[in-house]
Amino acid sequence: MINKNVSKIIIGIAFVFLIFQAMQPVEAKAPDMPNNSCADCHRKMPAEDGISNTYGKWAISTHALFEVTCEKCHGGDPLMVSKEDAHKNISKEAILNENTPAMCGKCHEPELNEFKGSQHYKKLESGQSGPAPACITCHQKHTVRVLTSSELMDFCISCHNIDTGINPSVPGKAKKALESLKELQFEISIARGAVISAKENGKDVRSAEIDLEEARTILKSAPSVWHRFNLTYFDTEVQKGIENAKNAEKLLAGATATQTPPAKSPGFGIFTLMSVMIIIYFIKRH
After folding, report:
1. For residues 23 and 184, what is the distance between their CA atoms, to the nearest angstrom?
2. Cβ neighbours around 41 below 10 Å, total
3. Percentage, residues of the chain above pLDDT 70
4. How many other C-beta atoms are found inside a 10 Å radius of the C-beta of residue 108?
5. What is residue 81's DSSP assignment?
6. By residue range, what is the domain housing residue 82?
7. Residue 284 lies in a domain
8. Considering 91, 125, 143, which residue would you say is the last residue of a domain?
9. Is 244 a member of any domain?
10. Residue 283: exposed, middle, or buried by beta-carbon count in 10 A (0-12, 13-18, 19+)?
11. Residue 219 sits in a domain of what CATH number?
């Protein structure tokens, strides 16, 4: 009995240990990028004051996922081994707040084009005093990530609040506008499933597919359109996409199955042909 109890205790402890391990934050695995001295060197640098080092922040970023490495923003030569050679032509100007749109726009051109039409960009270009958001204001340097609607609201509040007097209603509107994308994604998913089902039932889905494609186009362009920071325009576009997806569903609900003429059996055709030939034969005889 004692042995059984001991075994149960050991198994219980092991189980708790495994659960505890699973709950621990996973350390970011270093991306496998051979011949990149930036990554090789900076991942060895220790954290300072308990804060993750620059490499640690970058390693869990979207940039790391797509192998956008240090030199893309900072310059330098990642193929060089020595610090002096690797750091040649590193630019501090490119990473200044006001210069980040041009730098980021080299890869994110649609977003830059939309951003240039925003009040944020005009404020940034004017050089006026006061907060002027650029790319790293929201996406942050090195961690570089797409914000959730709640995170976005926190960033917006840092400038748009009662104390600054800069339109305090913006954070709430921005959160609501960004959340509407979830509804658009949901309606597109429903409409897509309806199209597939209707096709299987032989229904005409051409009109529905046009509406569905328009909804998809709006969803695809939403990330770049967002950077115009015109919340009214953004919300109008998203609502248009939602209506397109819903309209596709309505069209399918009233669609009828395409009528395909029943196929005639080969035997019937042969019988008819032979009958005609016999009639012609007797006509000629007489």
Report:
1. 33
2. 15
3. 74
4. 17
5. -
6. 1-91
7. no
8. 91
9. yes
10. exposed
11. 1.20.140
Asked if residues 74 and 90 have their Cβ atoms less than 8 Å apart, the reply is yes
Packing angle, helices 231-253 and 206-226, rounded to 10: 160
Q: How many domains does the chain have?
A: 2
Does any domain span residue 245? yes
Quick one: tokens of 161?
Answer: 């609040």
pLDDT tens column, 35-87: 788 888 888 877 665 456 788 888 889 899 898 999 999 999 998 888 889 99
| Assigned domain for 101 exists | no
Boundary of a domain, candidates 57, 91, 125:
91
Query: Hey, which residues does 257 pair with through a beta bridge?
Result: 203
Cα separation, 141 vs 139, in Å, equals 7
Q: Quote the DSSP letter at residue 97.
A: G
Sign of the C-alpha dihedral computed for residues 88, 90, 93 and 94 taken in this order: positive
| Tens of pLDDT, residues 20-30 | 444 443 444 54
Cα dihedral 120, 122, 126, 128 sign: negative
- What's the token pair of residue 200? 């299987």
| CA gap 51, 49 in Å, rounded | 5
Radius of gyration of the chain (CA): 32
Q: How far is CA 43 from CA 56, 57, 58, 88, 217, in A?
A: 7, 10, 10, 20, 40
